[in-house]
Amino acid sequence: MISLYGNVNGSRRVLYIGNLNSPFQREMYKFIKLYGKSYGLIVDNYYLKSGRSLKEKLKFRLSLANLFFKVNVNFDCIFVEFLGDNAYFTSLLNFKKKPIIVRCHRTELYEYWKKYGRRVQEAARKATIIICVSEAMKRRLLELMPWTKSKAIVVHNSIDPQRFYPINNKREKRSLIIGSLGKLIPRKGFIELVKVVGSLINRGFNIKLRIGGSGILKLYLEKLVSILCLESKVYIEGYIPEYRLNEWYNSLDLFVLNSKSEGMPTVILEAMASGLPVVATNVGGIPEVVDRRWTYNFGDTERLKELIIKIYNMPVEERRKIGYRNRLKVLAKFNIRINAKKILKIINNFINKEP
Length: 355
Hints:
The structure is a single chain. The chain is of the alpha/beta class. It has 2 domains: 12-158 and 335-352, 3-Layer(aba) Sandwich (Rossmann fold), CATH 3.40.50.2000; 176-334, Rossmann fold (3-Layer(aba) Sandwich). Helices cover 42% and strands 15% of the residues. The chain has 12 helices and 12 strands. It has helices at residues 23-36, 54-69, 85-93, 111-126, 135-144, 190-202, 218-227, 245-249, 266-273, 301-312, 316-333, 336-353, and strands at 12-17, 41-45, 77-81, 100-104, 129-132, 152-154, 176-181, 207-212, 234-238, 254-257, 278-281, 295-296. Strands 2-1-3-4-5-6 form a 6-stranded parallel sheet, with helices on both faces.
């Protein structure tokens, strides 16, 4: 937590409210702070984890209120991650009527909306601009709140391609190592993926599956692997530390994301930047990044098997060409070094509109 003071050397100050335990939010904050200097902006982070328990939520609200009531706190703009509690309580406490720029992801328009739709609407009303992480999330936002059309724009979720890059590894021609990564929760489709890969292994395909991540389904997935007698072929690896991620992606031949619902998943961008072919469901913002030839409807297991077999039978050099094109796409459109500057331009424009 950083104490904020007045403007320094004539610079304008931005208050960033986000969760720095989240890798992609931490990356975005880092680059907004880094590039902000060239825009005459000083960016400070005020990290508050809202949590799920009543005690954690109360602590979050009191801490945020304490920040806004401090006499020595002075800023020109507020940048908030998530159109949920963060944005809602920020809007209630914004007595100085400073511009609020909110980045809208996915949860606040689905699970959070079902319970706290009124809070999302109030936060959206008070927001100066709402940055959606994909075109799909913008469509969802306008479907729920058509009146946000004038303030909704898209700046895609992004990753740092200097952290994720291909490493030349020798591959066996007639084998395939598939990877999938994310929270081990039902909507991510890991149970179905294990069953699909298991059926292909039973048909004689030389395939291995590596699943990274932690969550409520970890023990269930381990038991499922045991029941299907796939212990030597399917590995539930748990949490993959950030410093190991590039190495982990480069140990794979194919990345699969079998999610039922997504916004703009950073794991796909990381896999593509690492030079991997990607097969994924055509949900959320995924069709905006993955070639439609390699997407399928959630639950269409036959189509998923067909795509995996297609990659399996493909020469290694052809897989690498697909991976190379994927990396070029990330460099051009989903590069955090480019998209952080887009966000800074938005912040700068609205600060300069202030009297």
